[in-house]
Specification:
Kinesin; 3 domains; ten-stranded mixed sheet; three-stranded antiparallel sheet; 19 helices; 15 strands; disordered N terminus; binds adenosine-5'-triphosphate
C-alpha cells in the first residue's frame, strides 16, 4: 500500500514539475485556446474539452476536488447569439440556402453583381430579365445591408467577446497562478506528507524493533525471575538447613562448654597428677645403675613367669583331663534332629493322600501355617524339662488298652547332655571340643554316633558343605590343628595323619584307597606295647591342614556304600571310622605324646522288620551284619562296665565284630569315649527311639576305667 501511495505521489510530483516547467503562459488551458480560435472569426462554441483536459492533465483520480484546494472549475462560456430578429433568421436561412454554413464566419466581400451584358443577349426577354435583375439587385442590396448590419453587430459582439476573453484570460491567469500556488503547496504538503510518512515508517519500525526487544527483554526477565525464584527457594532450604545446623551447633557448643568445664577440671587434676608423677619419676630415675638393676630384675621375672606359664599350662591340661575323666569315661550325648519336610511328606502320604497337597517336595513354598501344623502332628511327644543343664529327655505316648481305656505312658532318661531339635552344629561341637582337644595331650579319643537310619548320625559326624552345617569331624580336626598351632609357642611340634575306613558286611574297605571295594583283605593289628592300632594296606595320609581333611571327607563320601532302604534314601548301610593320629614332641621340655581321635558313624540301628530289608537277601545280610556289630558293641561296653565294677578277669569280646576289634584301644579303659545317640523326632519312630534310649542308658551307666595319657619323657 505504501508503494501505491509512493507511486501516486511520484506521478503527482512529476506532473507538478511539468506544469511548473511549462508555466502558466506557455500552456494555456484548451478552453482558452478555443476562445483564441474564435478570434479568427469562428463562431464561439462551448468547449467541452477544457474540463476533460484539466481532468486528464490531473491524471486519473487526481482532480482538483481530490486535492481539495484546487481552483474552482471554469464556467462554460456561453455561445453568443448571432441574431435575435426574425429578419436575421431569414437572412441566415437564405445564406444557408445559397452557401454551406461556414465553420468559421469570415466576413466575405460582397459578391460581385452579374454583368448586364450577360442578361441583354436575349432581346425578347430583356425587360423581364431586367426587372428580375433589379429585384434581385434590390434583394442583394437588402441582403448586403442586412449583412453589413450583422457584420457591425458581430464586430460589436466580437469586441465584447474579446473583452470577455481578456477578462477570462485574466481570471484564468489568476486561477492558474492560484492553481500553481495550490500545487506548489500541495507538493510541499505532499513532501511533508512523504517525510512524515517516512518518519512514521521509521518510527513504526523502530517501535516494532523496540517492542520485540522489549518482549525479548521481558522473556529474559521472566526467565531471570524464575531462576531467582528457584534460587530463593534453594536459599530458603539452605537457610532452613543452616538454621538446623546452627541449632545443633548451639546444642553442641553448649555440650562442649559443659565438657570443656569438666575437661578443665580434669586437666587441673591431671596436671596435679603429672606433677606428682614427675616427682615420682625424678625420684625413681635417680641413677642409671638403679635402672639397669631394675631391668635385670624384670627380665628375670619374665623368664620366671614364662616357666610358670608353661607349668600352669601342664597343670591346666591335667586338671582339664581330670574333669573330663570325672565326668565318666563313656559319656552319652543325645541329639534329636528336627522334623524335615520330607518327613511330613512321607507321613502325610501314609495318613492321607489328599492332605499332602499343600506340602511340596521341598522345592515349592507351602503354606507355612499348614506346614507347622503338620510338623506338630508328625512329631512324637517329646519333652526337655531340664532347661538348666539340658540333661533330660521325656518321651510320652497315649494308646488305647484292650479294655478301651486310654493308656498314657511316659519314659524319662538322663544323659550327659541332651540337644533339642533346634540345636546347631556349633553348639554341639562346643560340648565335645575339649574332648577332641585332649588327643593333642596324648589321649585316645573315640566319638561314635549311634541311632536308627535317618536319625542324623552322618549329619552330626560329617555335616553339610557350608561352615554352619559342618559336622564334628571337620570341626574336631580344625580344633586339633588350631590347638597344635597355639602349642607351638610352648615348644610343641605335632605331626598328623589320617585314615578313613568303612566296615561293610564285616569287611573293611579303605575309603581313601583307589582300588575296588571288598577286593583287598585288610587286617587289624594292635601293638600291645605302644597301644597303637593299625590296619594293613590302607592309605594313611599325612595331614598338613584342616582344609585337606574336608577334601578327604568328600573323597570318602563318594566311595561309601550307600544303598536305598525304606527308612532313608541316603541310608548308609556301613560303619565309617575316621581316625586322626597325632604325634607331638616338645623340644623345650623333652616330652612327647601320641594320641588318636576316632570319629565313628555307625550304620542304622533299626530292627529288621522296620528297615524293609526282610524281603531282600542282600539287604537282609546287611542288616544282620549291622545288628551283629552293634550288639557286639553293646556287649563290649557291658563287659567293660562289669570290668570297671571290679570283675578284673572279665573277658571283653572285642573280636566278636570288626567294629569292636578296630576300636579296641579306643574303647578300653585307656581312652575317652563319647557316644552320640541320634534320635528321630517322628511319632512313627517312637518305639525305635525308645530302644535306642535304653541302649544309650546302659552305655551311659558304664564305667570303663580311667583314661590314660600316652606320654614319654626323653630327658
Ligand atoms: N540336626 C539336623 N538338622 C537338620 N537336618 C538334619 C539334622 N540331622 C539330620 N538331618 C537331616 O536328616 C536326614 C537324615 O540324616 P542322616 O543321613 O545324617 O541320617 P543317618 O542317621 O546318618 O542315616 P544313615 O544311618 O542312613 O546314615 C538328612 O537329610 C540330614 O540332612
Amino acid at each position: 500500500m505504501a508503494a501505491g501511495v509512493t507511486t501516486r505521489t511520484n506521478s503527482l510530483k512529476r506532473k507538478a514539475a511539468t506544469q511548473e516547467n511549462l508555466g502558466a503562459d506557455q500552456q494555456p488551458p484548451r478552453k482558452l485556446a478555443a476562445i483564441a480560435e474564435a478570434d479568427t472569426n469562428q463562431p464561439l462554441r462551448p468547449s467541452k474539452t477544457a474540463p476533460n483536459s484539466t481532468n486528464n492533465t490531473n491524471g486519473a483520480g487526481a482532480g482538483p476536488s481530490k486535492l481539495g484546494r484546487g481552483p474552482p472549475p471554469l464556467t462554460k462560456p456561453r455561445a453568443p447569439t448571432l441574431a435575435t430578429s426574425t429578419s436575421t433568421n431569414a437572412v441566415r436561412r437564405t445564406t444557408r440556402a445559397t452557401s454551406a454554413p461556414p465553420k468559421t464566419a469570415p466576413v466575405r466581400p460582397p459578391a460581385r453583381p452579374m454583368s448586364r451584358t450577360t442578361w441583354v443577349a436575349r432581346p425578347g426577354a430583356s425587360t423581364v430579365n431586367d426587372e428580375r435583375f433589379d429585384s434581385i439587385q434590390q434583394q442583394i442590396a437588402k441582403i448586403e445591408a442586412a449583412r453589413a448590419a450583422d457584420a457591425a453587430r458581430l464586430d460589436a459582439e466580437l469586441a465584447q467577446e474579446r473583452a470577455k476573453r481578456s477578462d477570462l484570460q485574466a481570471s484564468h491567469e489568476a486561477l492558474s497562478r492560484e492553481l500553481t500556488n495550490a500545487k506548489t503547496q500541495e507538493i510541499a504538503q505532499r513532501q511533508e506528507l512523504f517525510i512524515a510518512s517516512d518518519e512514521l515508517n521509521s518510527l513504526r519500525q523502530r517501535h516494532e524493533r523496540e517492542i520485540s526487544e522489549m518482549q525479548a527483554d521481558l522473556r529474559r526477565k521472566d526467565r531471570e525471575l524464575r531462576e531467582l525464584n528457584e534460587d530463593l527457594r534453594m536459599c530458603q532450604a539452605d537457610l532452613e538447613r543452616e538454621r538446623d545446623t546452627v541449632k545443633s551447633l548451639k546444642a553442641t557448643i553448649a555440650q562442649q562448654a559443659t565438657a570443656q568445664l569438666s575437661l578443665t577440671a580434669q586437666l587441673g587434676a591431671l596436671q596435679a597428677e603429672k606433677a606428682a608423677v614427675q616427682a615420682e619419676f625424678d625420684r625413681t630415675c635417680g641413677s642409671k645403675a638403679d635402672l639397669a638393676l631394675q631391668l635385670e630384675r624384670a627380665q628375670k621375672r619374665i623368664a620366671d613367669l614364662e616357666r610358670e606359664a608353661r607349668e600352669g599350662e601342664s597343670v591346666r591340661r591335667k586338671l582339664h583331663n581330670m574333669v573330663q575323666e570325672l565326668k565318666g569315661n563313656i559319656r552319652v550325648f543325645v541329639r534329636v534332629r528336627p522334623v524335615l519336610r520330607s518327613d511330613i511328606l512321607s507321613t502325610t502320604f501314609n495318613l492321607s493322600a489328599g492332605s499332602a497337597g499343600s506340602i511340596t517336595d521341598g522345592t515349592g513354598s507351602p503354606d507355612p501355617e499348614e506346614e507347622a501344623r503338620m510338623r506338630e502332628e508328625a512329631m512324637a511327644q517329646m519333652a526337655f524339662p531340664d532347661k538348666m543343664d539340658h540333661r533330660e529327655i521325656v518321651l510320652k505316648s497315649s494308646s488305647e488298652s484292650a479294655t478301651g481305656q486310654e493308656r498314657k505312658d511316659e519314659w524319662q532318661f538322663t544323659f550327659d547332655r541332651v540337644f533339642e531339635p533346634h540345636s546347631t552344629q556349633a553348639e554341639v561341637f562346643e560340648e565335645i571340643s575339649q574332648l577332641a582337644q585332649s588327643c593333642t595331650d596324648g589321649y585316645n579319643v573315640c566319638v561314635f554316633a549311634y541311632g536308627q537310619t535317618g536319625s542324623g548320625k552322618s549329619f552330626t559326624m560329617e555335616g553339610g558343605s557350608s561352615d554352619a552345617t559342618a559336622g564334628m569331624i571337620p570341626r574336631a580336626v580344625e580344633q586339633v590343628f588350631r590347638v597344635a598351632d597355639e602349642l607351638k609357642s610352648k615348644g610343641w611340634q605335632y605331626k598328623m595323619e589320617g585314615q578313613f575306613l568303612e566296615i561293610y558286611n564285616e569287611t573293611i574297605n579303605d575309603l581313601l584307597g583307589k582300588g575296588e571295594f571288598d577286593k583287598k583283605k585288610h587286617e587289624i593289628k594292635h601293638d600291645p606295647k605302644t597301644g597303637r592300632t593299625t590296619v594293613t594296606d590302607v592309605n594313611v595320609v599325612p595331614l598338613a591342614s584342616a582344609t585337606q581333611v574336608r577334601t578327604l571327607l568328600a573323597l570318602a563320601q563318594g566311595r561309601r556304600t550307600v544303598a536305598a532302604t525304606l527308612m532313608n534314601e541316603r541310608s548308609s548301610r556301613s560303619h565309617s571310622v575316621f581316625t586322626l593320629r597325632i604325634r607331638g614332641e616338645n623340644a623345650l621340655t623333652g616330652e612327647s605324646c601320641e594320641g588318636s581321635l576316632n570319629l565313628v558313624d555307625l550304620a542304622g540301628s533299626e530292627r529288621l522288620e522296620k528297615s524293609g530289608a526282610a524281603g531282600d537277601r542282600d539287604r537282609l545280610k546287611e542288616t544282620q551284619n549291622i545288628n551283629k556289630s552293634l550288639s557286639a558293641l553293646g556287649d563290649v561296653i557291658a563287659a567293660l562296665g562289669e570290668k570297671g565294677e571290679g570283675k578284673g578277669d572279665k573277658h571283653i569280646p572285642y573280636r566278636n565284630s570288626k567294629l569292636t576289634y578296630l576300636l579296641q584301644n579306643s574303647l578300653s579303659g585307656n581312652s575317652k569315649t563319647l557316644m552320640f545317640l541320634n534320635l528321630s523326632p517322628l511319632a512313627t519312630h517312637l518305639h525305635e527311639s525308645l530302644c535306642s534310649l535304653r541302649f544309650a542308658t546302659k552305655v551311659n551307666n558304664t564305667t570303663i576305667g580311667t583314661a590314660r595319657k600316652q606320654t614319654k619323657h626323653t630327658a
